[in-house]
């Protein structure tokens, strides 16, 4: 049980319980809304690693040998529903995802390249600036990558990829999430 503040003047009071947050996460997960496909054309040009077999050759030389300089796609999805908990400093979440990479052949056929499980801990903090409700997202724990066991796929150097992914999330992912936090006027 929690006690809500009493107001002597008009104010906005927002209370979110873990039940509400986890119910929303469950609904998004079961509806399949926690999926995203990323093509090579969606990666910013300034990012040091492009989504091609040539770039991924750093992590898997066999990939570049089998499919020289071909575009790739990443299919990101949640393996389980996110687990959310409410704390005074924000909403904490444990995310359990997977990234399946495909090589896109000239005839548009997609060939599986690798499958990684990705787990991360994040914190979302709501803020009010002026009359705008905003939020920020940050990584609060280690980013864990684990190659899923599929036979016949090229060898993948996961530690190198994990380091680059952390850098990419820090450089692009978190700033993008923070820029996408829709500023809503506070009544």
TrEMBL record:
It is found in: Secreted. The cytotoxic action of BPI is limited to many species of Gram-negative bacteria; this specificity may be explained by a strong affinity of the very basic N-terminal half for the negatively charged lipopolysaccharides that are unique to the Gram-negative bacterial outer envelope. Its main location: secreted. GO terms for cellular component: extracellular space. GO terms for molecular function: lipopolysaccharide binding. This is Bactericidal permeability-increasing protein. Keywords: Antibiotic, Antimicrobial, Disulfide bond, Glycoprotein, Immunity, Innate immunity, Membrane, Secreted, Signal, Transmembrane, Transmembrane helix. The gene is Bpi_1. The chain crosses the membrane at residues 12-34. The N- and C-terminal barrels adopt an identical fold despite having only 13% of conserved residues. The N-terminal region may be exposed to the interior of the granule, whereas the C-terminal portion may be embedded in the membrane. During phagocytosis and degranulation, proteases may be released and activated and cleave BPI at the junction of the N- and C-terminal portions of the molecule, providing controlled release of the N-terminal antibacterial fragment when bacteria are ingested.
């Amino acid at each position: 049980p929690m006690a809500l503040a009493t107001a002597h003047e008009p104010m906005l009071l927002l209370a979110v319980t873990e039940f509400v947050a986890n119910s929303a996460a469950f609904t998004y997960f079961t509806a399949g809304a926690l999926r995203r496909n990323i093509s090579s054309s969606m990666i910013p040009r300034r990012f040091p690693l492009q989504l091609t077999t040539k770039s991924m050759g750093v992590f898997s030389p066999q990939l570049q040998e089998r499919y020289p300089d071909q575009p790739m796609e990443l299919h990101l999805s949640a393996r389980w529903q996110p687990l959310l908990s409410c704390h005074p400093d924000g909403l904490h979440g444990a995310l359990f995802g997977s990234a399946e990479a495909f090589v896109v052949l000239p005839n548009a056929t997609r060939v599986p390249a690798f499958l990684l499980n990705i787990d991360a801990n994040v914190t979302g903090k709501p803020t009010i600036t002026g009359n705008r409700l905003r939020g920020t997202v940050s990584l609060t724990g280690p980013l864990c990558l684990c190659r899923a066991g599929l036979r016949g796929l090229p060898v993948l150097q996961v530690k190198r990829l994990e380091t680059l992914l952390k850098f990419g999330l820090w450089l692009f992912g978190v700033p993008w999430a923070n820029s996408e936090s829709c500023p809503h006027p506070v009544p």
